[in-house]
Write a structure and sequence with these properties.
Strand content: under 5%
CATH architecture: Orthogonal Bundle
Number of strands: 0
CATH topology: Helix Hairpins
Number of domains: 1
Helix content: over 70%
Radius of gyration: 24 Å
Oligomer: single chain
Order of helices and strands: HHH
Structural class: mainly alpha
Number of helices: 3
Largest sheet: none
Shape: rod-shaped
CATH class: Mainly Alpha
């Protein structure tokens, strides 16, 4: 699987998790969609400002499950982004090396043997 495909394979579940968390916290905690979205992203990213805290038992239990599941998916997405960036950098480096070798061969072909 290509890096872009792997990245999209992870971004989809991450987006679904953010959307699902937003909708869940909107209904379970009675927060507006913006607050529910903010809490979801802050929780997934492990920032945890603490200005929004679940108060219902369902919200508290779901948040702990959400953290364990979401952290794994979030970490996988970050790893895939890093991996894709690293692979692009390596491909660019290899192209530069190949260009240098190609240029050297051309220069060697132009010089007559001594």
């Amino acid at each position: 699987m290509k890096p872009l495909q792997r990245l999209l394979f992870v971004i989809g579940p991450l987006g679904g998790l953010v959307l699902g968390g937003t909708v869940f916290f909107h209904h379970a905690e009675g927060w507006g969609y913006l607050d529910a979205y903010f809490f979801t992203v802050v929780t997934l990213s492990t920032v945890g400002y603490g200005n929004l805290v679940p108060i219902t038992p369902l919200g508290k239990i779901a948040t702990t499950i959400f953290i364990f599941v979401g952290l794994g998916i979030f970490a996988l997405a970050v790893q895939q982004i890093g991996s894709a960036a690293h692979q692009r950098r390596e491909e660019k480096r290899q192209r530069l090396i190949d260009d240098i070798h190609s240029q050297k061969r051309e220069d060697d072909d132009k010089d007559p043997p001594a």
